[in-house]
Design brief:
Elements: E1 2-3, E2 6-7, E3 11-15, H1 18-21, E4 30-32, H2 37-51, E5 55-63, E6 72-80, E7 104-105, E8 115-120, E9 135-137, H3 140-150, E10 153-162, H4 168-189
Parallel strand pairs: 3-4, 3-5, 5-10, 6-8, 8-9
Antiparallel strand pairs: 1-2, 6-7, 6-10
Helix pairs in contact: 2-3
Length: 190
């Protein structure tokens, strides 16, 4: 696969859940990391040790109040949205005693897709109020961080499944069935 003029020979597709992949990615090297940042970090790290990829592609669902349901968004900027240690004098989303910036900028950008800022956290967001990010998921920050630390190129494509609002759970249940088809179509365009 060639992306932005670079050829990749050993690609690892990363999904949180099998339902996000459906039957569309049967013949691909893939891993299902589970829900949440801890599981995602652990399972991606194990998969990297096993397959030594030159590109990690995170495909999955996400909520958004900015982008419409059914759209595919390319994320190359990430925030750990549940990091909140303001009570001890740190900035919102800042990791205490770390020199890492709040906004992790790591990942490939594609020309044909809108670019979003993904806020990852260990809760299913149903009342999005943070203007700092416009795509909401539960794993991408962790996946991007592992890829960055391991020096592996990273591409993140998110299918917008819900509006990160009071209907998010019901919308996600319906839209997740459509995600794999849309994500595969977009991957084939690269």
């Amino acid at each position: 696969m060639e992306i932005n003029g670079k050829i990749y020979n050993n690609i690892l597709l990363v999904f949180a859940l099998e339902s996000e992949a459906g039957k569309e990615f049967e013949n691909f090297n893939k891993v299902f990391v589970g829900i949440g940042k801890v599981k995602a970090t652990y399972n991606l790290t194990k998969a990297i040790q096993k397959s030594n990829p030159d590109l990690i592609i995170n495909l999955g669902t996400a909520g958004s109040t900015t982008f419409d349901r059914g759209n595919i968004i390319n994320c190359s900027r990430f925030i750990q949205r549940d990091m909140d240690v303001r009570a001890l004098g740190f900035q919102k989303f800042e990791t205490p005693f770390s020199d890492e910036p709040i906004l992790l900028e790591y990942g490939l950008k594609t020309e044909n897709l809108p670019n979003g800022i993904c806020g990852s956290g260990d809760q299913f967001e149903i009342e999005h109020i943070n203007p700092e990010y416009n795509v909401i998921d539960m794993e991408a920050f962790a996946l991007a961080k592992v890829a960055e630390l391991e020096g592996i190129d990273f591409l993140c494509l998110k299918y917008i499944s819900d509006g990160a609002d009071g209907n998010a759970a019901d919308d996600w249940t319906i839209e997740v069935k459509k995600a794999s088809i849309a994500l595969r179509r977009e991957l084939d365009k690269l």
